[in-house]
Design brief:
Blueprint (H helix, E strand, L loop, with lengths): L4 E4 L3 E5 L6 E5 L14 E8 L20 H11 L5 E7 L8 H10 L3 E6 L6 H6 L6 E4 L4 H12 L4 E7 L4 H8 L7 E2 L2 E2 L8 E6 L15 H11 L7 E4 L1 H7 L7 H6 L9 E4 L4 E3 L6 H4 L1 E2 L6 H7 L1 H12 L9
Parallel strand pairs: 4-5, 4-13, 5-6, 6-7, 7-8, 8-11, 11-12
Antiparallel strand pairs: 1-2, 2-3, 9-10, 13-14, 14-15
Helix pairs in contact: 1-2, 5-6, 10-11
């Protein structure tokens, strides 16, 4: 496996392939693999400050603020590019509709940081598809609408590594079981599948978060559902890869013990250890699901990203809870 980006300090080494996304983080000189890094290897950046769609399950809520300034995004990349390998673009709304979307993608790539993002697929343009070829991968949220499937096929046709993001909840559980059992839950029109499963890279399940607008919904998966999901997901029958966010993994691992190879490929919560979230107004927190009042710290001249990551009481507290609770979510999600 070709490695074209390497970071080494006295305790660990990070080896990364900017073309495939293959990453190894390993202890060196007799040291164990690091529990936490000196800077995140992935930064989740909320470049979008508002969204017109107001989805009732959005964990970000429906607050509105300006999108992140391009100059602020550049300052993030400049601060972490020697250590950070990937940046996940998000926030409230579709990152591909940011007024500086093209410049953001190009600046990250130019500085050796691989950009990725998730979109609803609404109002997707040819120009957005073209610049997305610089991304490591693009995910389309499965809203079950025409624009969802049109976007998936457009990305696939453009040769872009394409994933589907699906919220795993009590409501979506039956559909999730169909997918990991090898069935095709997507409709067929005129004898042609809406989703080309042979070319789809993966379906990634994201645990439903009862936060933001979603706090009003009774969608939290039941224990019986999680048990059923857990006992199938490590032996899926699908044509494509199956993935889970670290929040869902935390729950799944309570019901099943993966084999040694699977254990090497999954990780529980990485917040404040391997990753962090930065809001459109440049506040940094351990993850995007953290309460912005309790966990966020403004990035300014006195508190840059490295200082917040290493020295702030907030990040130290988050890491301490993770270490004490075997990486179970400090937010109880």
């Amino acid at each position: 496996m070709k490695i074209n980006k390497v970071f080494v300090n006295k305790d660990y080494a990070i080896m990364f392939n900017t073309n495939t996304g293959f990453e190894i983080i390993t202890g060196i000189k007799g040291k164990e693999d690091p529990f936490a890094l000196e800077l995140p290897s992935l930064v989740d950046v909320g470049i979008m400050g508002h969204c017109k769609h107001k989805c009732p399950f959005c964990y970000q809520g429906h607050d509105e603020q300006p999108n992140m300034k391009f100059e602020d995004f550049k300052s993030i990349i400049d601060s972490v590019k020697h250590h950070t390998n990937q940046v996940a673009l998000g926030g409230r709304g579709d990152p591909n509709h940011h007024e500086n979307f093209k410049e953001i993608i190009e600046y990250a790539r130019k500085n050796g940081v691989v950009p990725n993002y998730t979109t609803s697929g609404i109002d997707l343009t040819d120009e957005q598809i073209e610049i997305s070829k610089l991304c490591g991968a693009v995910a389309v949220s499965d809203y079950g609408r025409d624009y969802t499937y049109n976007a998936i096929q457009q990305f696939i046709d453009a040769g872009i590594k394409t994933n589907i993001h699906m919220i795993y909840s009590a409501k979506s559980h039956p559909r999730a079981i169909e997918i990991i059992s090898g069935l095709d839950p997507w409709e067929v029109e005129n004898d042609h599948p809406i989703v080309d499963l042979d070319k789809l890279n993966a379906v990634i399940f994201l645990l439903f978060k009862p936060a933001g607008a979603g706090a009003k919904l009774d969608w939290t998966p039941k224990k019986m559902q999680l048990n059923t999901f857990a006992n199938i997901v490590f032996n899926p029958k699908s044509k494509f890869k199956i993935g889970m966010d670290s929040c869902l993994i935390n729950h799944v691992l309570q019901y099943v013990e993966p084999n040694e190879l699977q254990r090497m490929s999954v990780d529980s919560c990485e917040g404040a250890r391997m990753s962090a979230y930065i809001t459109p107004d440049m506040r940094m927190m351990p993850c995007s699901f953290a309460d912005k009042r309790d966990w966020s710290i403004p990035i300014d001249d006195e508190r840059d990203i490295k200082r917040i990551w290493n020295d702030s009481k907030t990040f130290k507290r988050f890491r301490k809870i993770l270490e004490r609770n075997n990486c179970c979510c400090p937010l109880n999600l």
